[in-house]
Amino acid sequence: MLAFQGAERALRTWEPTAAHLNRSVGGSRFVLVPLDLDAMSRAVAGREVDFVITNPGNYIALESGFGATRLVTVESERSGSPIAAIGSTVVARGDRPDLDTLAGLKGRRLAVVSTEAFGGYQVLWRELAALGLDPSDDLREIRQTGFPMERVAQLVRDGLVDAGVLRACLLEEMIAEGALAPGELRVVGRRDEPKLPCAVSSRLYPDWPFAKLAETSHDLAKQVAAALLSMPAVDGQAWTAPQDYTQVHALMQDLEIGPYAHLRQHLNLAELARRHWQWLVIAAMAVLWWVVHVARVEVLVRRRTAELEREIAERERAENDAARHRAERDQFSRLGILGEMASNIAHELNQPLAAIMNYARGMSRMLDGGQADPAMLADGAQAVATQAERAAAIIQRIRGFVRRRKPRRERLDINEVVAETLALFESLAGRRGIAVHVHLAEGLPGVSVDRGEIQQVLLNILQNAVDATAGQGAEAGDGITVRTSPGEGGVKVAVRDCGAGLSQEAEARLFEPFFTTKPEGLGLGLSICRTIIEAHGGRLWASANPRRGLTLRFVIPPAEAPA
Ligand code: ADP
């Protein structure tokens, strides 16, 4: 049996029951083993005992832990009914009328016999919990006095605590014994419980059970139950039918103790924080570090982005400048070529102008001589108009070439571009006594080019060829040959001359800007030509002829097939 007040007192209480069993149940000997709560668990687990007499709380634990089954319940004269026998009474000093309700215990010092006690603590704990109070948080202090429980009453009386918890009826018993004067202590949170003849502050629970354990023989248990039910009362205490202990289950469930302690596993956050505050601090520092780090990275990224944007803007500006310079240089070069061709142009224009003059003079003579044949005059006027158109066409071509404009790609036949360019050029070569031979291949793929730029390239190369050929005398008799042919998937244009050819230095530096061997030369022509051809996705190169002179070639890839 549970000896919560010491072995001696327990033996005294239960001796009559043991004696009765030894008398009534033949073939078995009954020995009382007084145990505290821990020893009780060990003894039951080790099957050292067959029956237990214990308080309702401990019984519930044994029932769920070890299959204990109640046979009978104590019936005591002191507490009216075995189903409503155990309760808690909270007492305060009689001169403390301010402490009247259980809610008023908040922030007070409370004396209890032990926090393990059922009637002495857990029963009241459930009432406090129902009011939303957690004794370990909301009371200023819980002082455990140990048995006997009368000590709780003494601490309250002496003012060492504000209130104390007694099992129901102990207050009345102490007054009856003269240990307390009536009115010396008053009941806090008194409830009306008609089944119990004592003042009480809690709900009531069934009295102690007598239980068999799982392995105890069923027959023996039956004999024991029968013997106990027929036991006459000793000191107002006997055994009656087993009571319903569901309310005790409910208590343990509410408080998450005993068999329901596992419910407590869901530790509340505050508890967790209290236990693991070091980790929380570390985690908080880590989060803080991370926030600072992210903020820093953000700032760095912004700064770098701004730098990059500035750099990009600068590069765009530089590119725009470069494009402008390129355009200016191209224009400059076109004007250069024009300058070089100026005499050629003058010569070309001279022819239609001279013809116009001749026609005009002839017509005027006809009129003067009075033999104005209208048909002949009309022919003459027609011829003048034709020559004037020819002059206009020459000027038109030159203006078209010189005019500055945006490059515009169109799908063209390279032979057409070559023929057009030669029309601008041929008479110049002719006047210098240099023959120009043309071989245009049939069926070349179309190319996507800027007409003016390709003309510029060709004129440059032709002009260089004329410069190199002029003054070479009879040796240059073969003149200049312009040839188109299929090449490298696209078209190839070759300009071959029989001129002076290149020195070694000139060969290495031919395409360098400002490399020139001519007194009036700029040295920009070929470098610009290469830029233009490469912009068309092609290639421009020079190679010495086997016999004499130089050949310049460029290839242009074919235009993509029209969609
Ligand atoms: P420029 O004609 O103003 O000198 P280019 O870049 O067109 O500038 O030519 C650079 C140099 O390359 C010329 O001065 C000349 O020495 C040389 N060169 C170009 N074409 C030929 C050629 N067909 N034969 C010999 N030398 C050439």
The SS-based structural class is alpha+beta
Estimated share of beta-strand residues: 5-15%
CATH A-level architecture of the largest domain? 2-Layer Sandwich
Helix content: 40-55%
Largest beta-sheet characterization? 5 strands, mixed
Distance between the termini: 105 Å
Can you identify the CATH class of the largest domain? Alpha Beta
As for the number of domains, it is 5
Strand order of the largest sheet: 5-4-6-3-7
Total strand segments: 16
CATH topology of the largest domain: Heat Shock Protein 90
Low-pLDDT stretches are none
The value of Rg in angstroms is 62 Å
Ligands in the structure?
adenosine-5'-diphosphate
Keywords: ATP-binding, Coiled coil, Kinase, Nucleotide-binding, Phosphoprotein, Transferase, Two-component regulatory system
Pfam families: HATPase_c, HisKA, Phosphonate-bd
Coiled coil: 301-335
Protein name: histidine kinase
